[in-house]
Specification:
four-stranded antiparallel sheet, alpha+beta, 3 helices, 9 strands, about 150 residues
């Protein structure tokens, strides 16, 4: 079974608009230092917008590649060998969007919406991965959970 899914997000429009606002502000102010500062802040927000345009989850053999893009600044590998539990879920408003530590413990990687897949890995690591395909992603990842070691010998 293979998995390759990209979820678009309108969040990038908000981030890019903030960047454009700083560009406009930088062009309207007097003073070179303030203008350069506002242009620099605008550039960071605009680049963040490009980084959060979409999220792609792709099977790459022994791991799932999670990458925001099309500017791939934020990406990570989820090793299948470390998966212990996969559960389709819904995030709360407090869980928010973006990449950050979650109130329930672990990390949130979510661009838009409240559908997600909760992942538990060895060592107590948790990840809440936002997706517009929670059924498909959860079903795929459940096939990748390694069997328990030292199973029944009868």
């Amino acid at each position: 079974m293979d998995y390759d899914h990209t979820q678009p997000s309108p969040l990038f429009l908000f981030l890019a608009a903030i960047g454009i606002g700083f560009f406009v502000g930088g062009s309207q102010v007097d003073g070179q230092k303030l203008s350069i500062t506002l242009f620099s802040i605008g550039a960071v927000w605009f680049l963040l917008g490009l980084s959060f345009r979409q999220v792609t989850c792709r099977n790459e053999g022994d791991h799932l590649r999670i990458s925001f893009g099309p500017l791939p600044i934020f990406r990570r590998k989820l090793l299948y060998a470390r998966l212990e539990k996969v559960e389709q879920s819904r995030s709360r408003l407090l869980d928010g969007w973006g990449i950050h530590l979650c109130t329930r413990g672990g990390w949130v990687w979510n661009l838009w919406g409240f559908d997600c897949v909760d992942l538990d890995s060895t060592g107590g690591k948790k990840l809440r991965l936002g997706t517009d395909d929670p059924e498909g992603l959860a079903a795929f990842l459940k096939t990748k959970i390694p069997p328990p070691e030292g199973g029944d010998d009868s």
